[in-house]
Write a structure and sequence with these properties.
The chain is built from 8 helices and 24 strands. The chain is an alpha+beta fold. Strand 12 and strand 13 form a beta hairpin. The longest helix has 18 residues. The C terminus is likely disordered.
Length: about 400
């Protein structure tokens, strides 16, 4: 059964007078009922501005915002925030210091267009507090709570009116790492339990991938890619998405005839580089063949230069005294090692291995690529903007 859309944005654009560039540039997306959308990107990319437009705190210059099938902004109409049936969780929690937990949670209910009686306010407040695991702390004030508990109060306050959509603006950025790891999964579990849709703004890649059903990667006000966490990670649509989301190495490559040459190996292209051609990687000591799987070059538009993307976890290291790459450093990360590698040109590459691969600093290693996708991203000087996916198959 297909889920209905709780939110639809169509060509949303926002420009601030003091800026020469667009804060949000022609963004279109749809969020299905019950789904969690993570808006991911660096500071200043427009993700918080987009969230504020959805909430009604900002007016878009153009485009429309639809919530639950009704237009709330655009086409000559604008609905104020308090009428949009959304809940907001801010980065700094925005709790009232003179109100205790129960009073903070109940505040939004008491001011919700006068529809709630005293009994229903108490009931909804108690349910929201229990939902976030704070039962028994109703009488405490914000300064008596930990950061994680304060964030739970902010979430309970947003959830208490049972809005159609929850908007969270980097809600975990002020918390310690361990608290953040625990709370992000609890927030997802809570939202899934009650079936509420949500948009989660963050600049943390791991956070976005773990909490979201859909991830939207933003850059310079534009939506670079929208897809499932798996799609974003395994098939990045641009060089920016690949670098921001994946833990990957990028090797400059030059096409010479049927070869993509790099300083640590070469990729051989068979069949003239067309969409059904085969590629064999000399980086792979097992010489698995590779096939182009997601992009077809036009015959006369094959770029001469590009960058090969190889994820850290797909690099295999094998000691070899004659190899051109040397281990510069090794970091123990508990369940794995992360190696810093130095190429002949001085470029740094990284590899993540299991604990069974324990190599000393200074060891020369030959690089192999695991059975996974390697992508070619044409350089800026070429006319091709899409990546070429080189999928290694046995």
């Amino acid at each position: 059964m297909k889920q209905s859309a709780i939110l639809h944005l169509e060509n949303i654009t926002k420009h601030y007078e003091q800026s020469s560039s667009l804060a949000v540039n022609n963004v279109t997306l749809t969020l299905r009922q019950g789904d969690l959308l993570g808006l991911l990107g660096p500071s200043g990319c427009g993700k918080t501005t987009l969230l504020r437009i959805i909430a009604g705190f900002e007016h878009p210059q153009s485009g429309t915002v639809e919530l639950a099938g009704r237009v709330v902004a655009g086409a000559g109409y604008w609905m104020p925030p308090e009428q949009r049936d959304t809940g907001m969780v801010f980065q700094d929690y925005a709790l009232f210091p003179h109100l205790n937990v129960a009073e903070n949670v109940a505040f939004g209910l008491k001011n919700r267009r006068g529809r709630s009686s005293g009994v229903s306010v108490k009931k909804s407040t108690a349910e929201a507090i229990a939902l976030v695991g704070l039962s028994g702390l109703e009488k405490r004030y914000p300064h008596e709570l930990s950061g994680g508990q304060q964030q739970r109060v902010a979430l309970a306050r947003a959830l208490a009116p049972r809005p159609s959509l929850i908007l969270l603006d980097e809600p975990l950025s002020n918390l310690d790492v361990q608290v953040r790891l625990r709370l992000r999964q609890e927030i997802r579990a809570i939202l899934k339990e009650i079936g509420t849709s949500a948009i989660f703004v963050t600049h943390d890649r791991e956070e976005a991938l773990s909490i979201s059903d859909q991830v939207g990667v933003m850059r310079g006000g534009t939506l670079e890619q929208l897809g499932t966490p798996e799609e974003i990670y395994t098939h990045p649509a641009s060089r920016f998405v690949a670098e921001f989301v994946t833990q990957a190495n990028f090797l400059p490559a030059h096409r010479r005839g049927e070869l993509w040459e790099t300083e640590v190996g070469a990729f051989e292209v068979f069949g003239g580089g067309m969409g059904n051609g085969e590629i064999k990687s000399n980086l792979n000591t097992q010489s698995y063949p590779t096939v182009i799987s997601s992009f077809q070059f036009q015959k006369d538009a094959i770029p001469d230069r590009g960058e090969l993307m190889v994820r850290e976890e797909n690099v295999i290291l094998k000691p070899d005294d004659e190899a051109p790459v040397v281990i510069r450093d090794r970091h123990f990360l508990g369940r794995e090692y992360r190696y810093c590698l130095l190429t002949p040109s001085g470029k740094e590459l990284h590899a993540r291995t299991t604990l069974s691969t324990q190599l000393a600093v200074g060891t020369r290693v030959k690089l192999s690529v695991a059975n996974s996708a390697v992508q070619i991203f044409p350089t800026v000087s070429t006319t091709i903007s899409q990546p070429t996916s080189l999928k290694i198959v046995r």
